[in-house]
Amino acid sequence: MAAVAEPNTLSLDLRDIADAKAGPMLFSAAQRLGLGQKIVLQIDRDPQSLLRATAFQLRDAISWSVSDAGGVWQAEVRPRKEAEARDVVDLLTWDHYRLDRQFADVLAAANANRVAEAESIFQDYWIGLRRHVHMENFILGPVLGGGEKKGPLADMLFEHDSIIQQSRLVDETFLEKDYAMLPAICAVLSGSLAKHENREENTLFPIWQAANNQDKLRAEELLMQTKALLGGADDAIVKERFPD
Ligand SMILES: [Fe+2]
Ligand SMILES: [Fe+2]
User: 66, 47 in Cβ contact below 8 A?
Assistant: First the structure.
């Protein structure tokens, strides 16, 4: 029922599919939405209550618009943060949540031996993680500070190296089709990722937020740049810095 029509657009046809099944389908598509991506939904009934229920499950992470053309409704669903992020720290905190969800899905699929699904979600996560780390390491760190030699910024850089390495290990596991260790490696990485994000949000992000607030114009530029980068605008540079 779901098909990729063009890059960054996922078409989801929920006509003739009851809410009990349509809800989980919409949920699993919506929870992976990245910046610059949208779901185009077709449905044969008013989708507002389905969309509201999905938004509730996703802690309000999506926004949407609905049009009605004679018995067939079409809805476009996008990440709410795309329009509403207050600043770069707000956006990165949301992206943590998104990466976590993706990785939890990789782990669940790996545990259930659904290897192809695990790999496809992992590839989304892997490029998303590298965009995120690129932004933090090379753009925000040098501008907003936090202690490059010693301090939360130094800790962040160190932990990023480890998370990138562990993720590369997962990537190699898929490449070599050596799936026996996959759930164990994924479980370790999932823990490292959650710990890192938590530490970052509690120690470094308050410093960045304060520094960012001191220059309104720069803050707006950083927010635009981060949206574009997380949406894939600089993938050539990102992949050069963090090869597969
Ligand atoms: Fe982060
Ligand atoms: Fe980070």
Answer: yes
Same domain, 98 and 205: yes
pLDDT at 100 over 60: yes
Distance between CA atoms of residues 225 and 33, nearest Å? 19
For residues 235 and 231, what is the distance between their CA atoms, to the nearest angstrom?
9
Sheet of strand 72-79: strand arrangement: 2-6, 9-13, 38-43, 72-79, 62-69
Q: Residue 158's domain spans which residues?
A: 85-241
**Same domain flag for 74 and 175:** no
Residues 47 and 108 both lie in one domain? no
Q: What would the pLDDT profile of 181-224 be if each residue is shown by its tens digit?
A: 888 888 899 999 999 999 999 999 999 999 999 999 999 999 99
Kind of pairing between the strands at 9-13 and 38-43: parallel
Which secondary structure element, helix H or strand E, spans residue 60, and what is its range?
A: none
**pTM tops 0.90:** no
- Residue 59 shares a structural domain with residue 123: no
Gap between the Cα atoms of 77 and 232, Å rounded: 19
161 CA distance to ligand 1 centroid (A)? 13
**Sign of dihedral through CA atoms 113, 114, 119, 121?**
negative
The pLDDT score that the predictor gives to residue 2 is: 53
Give dist(CA 204, CA 194) in Å, integer.
15
Cα-to-centroid distance, 199 and ligand 1 (Å): 9
Distance (Å) from CA 209 to ligand 2 centroid = 15
Position 182 scores a pLDDT of 87
Ligand nearest the Cα of residue 156 is 2
The yes-or-no verdict on residue 139 having pLDDT over 90 is yes
